[in-house]
Q: What sequence folds into this?
């Protein structure tokens, strides 16, 4: 396994390795970019050889992130992190929310999901089309200590799909200050303002404050 360079001196050897509960390489890249300086080895579950049957049955983003991180930490007796994210649309009572991936069925295309959300948003005045991407990140230690933080990015449901970058609900998520959707932003710019980036940076600060990093 390739070791990453670190600027920090570890207070406890058990914290040299972190397992992030995802199989998504895009997420792993973003996590290594933000936490790689502080944690020398960040592995996906697959890379760590950890298998865990996880039922995400929480009622909030925080619950679900904690459920995943606890399961991975327990399975590997290791420091683990997990995230849970989604789109919250105010005029749809917060839907799709924690059900963002499953909304209208896992196999339904995002083209269809996005057009449905636009239809709902067009029924209300522009000021009421507010929405946000939310990401909760949980960190669980083998000794049972745990932390959870939230990052958000505020936006408005656009009147049409626009942009080719990103994934999921990005083509309908308008950043009012910039006048573009998150699917129209170059990936580096989206990472800078993204809910996941914000949550990861908040977790990094918290772990430094707690004396973990
Ligand atoms: P997960 O936390 O990676 O499982 O994300 C849940 C779902 O939320 C994704 O499948 C997308 O539908 C949606 N989602 C989360 N983050 C984003 C984003 O940055 N852009 C677009 N959709 C997102």
A:
């Amino acid at each position: 396994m390739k070791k990453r360079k670190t600027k920090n001196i570890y207070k406890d050897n058990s914290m040299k390795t972190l397992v992030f509960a995802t199989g998504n390489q895009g997420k792993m890249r973003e996590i290594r970019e933000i936490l790689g300086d502080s944690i020398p080895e960040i592995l996906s579950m697959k890379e760590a050889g950890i298998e865990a049957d996880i039922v995400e049955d929480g009622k909030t983003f925080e619950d679900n992130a904690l459920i995943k991180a606890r399961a991975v930490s327990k399975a590997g007796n290791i420091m683990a992190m997990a995230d849970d994210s989604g789109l919250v649309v105010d005029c749809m009572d917060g839907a799709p929310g924690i059900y963002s991936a499953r909304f209208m069925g896992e196999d339904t295309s995002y083209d269809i999901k996005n057009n449905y959300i636009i239809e709902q948003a067009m029924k209300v005045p522009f000021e009421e089309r507010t929405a946000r991407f939310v990401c909760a990140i949980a960190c669980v230690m083998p000794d049972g200590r745990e932390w959870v933080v939230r990052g958000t990015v505020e936006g408005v449901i656009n009147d049409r799909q626009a942009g080719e970058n990103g994934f999921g609900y990005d083509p309908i998520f308008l950043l009012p200050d910039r006048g573009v959707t998150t699917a129209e932003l170059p990936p580096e710019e989206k990472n800078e303002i993204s809910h996941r980036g914000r949550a990861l940076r908040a977790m990094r600060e918290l772990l430094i404050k707690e004396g973990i990093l």
Notes: Confidence is low (pLDDT under 50) at residues 1-11.
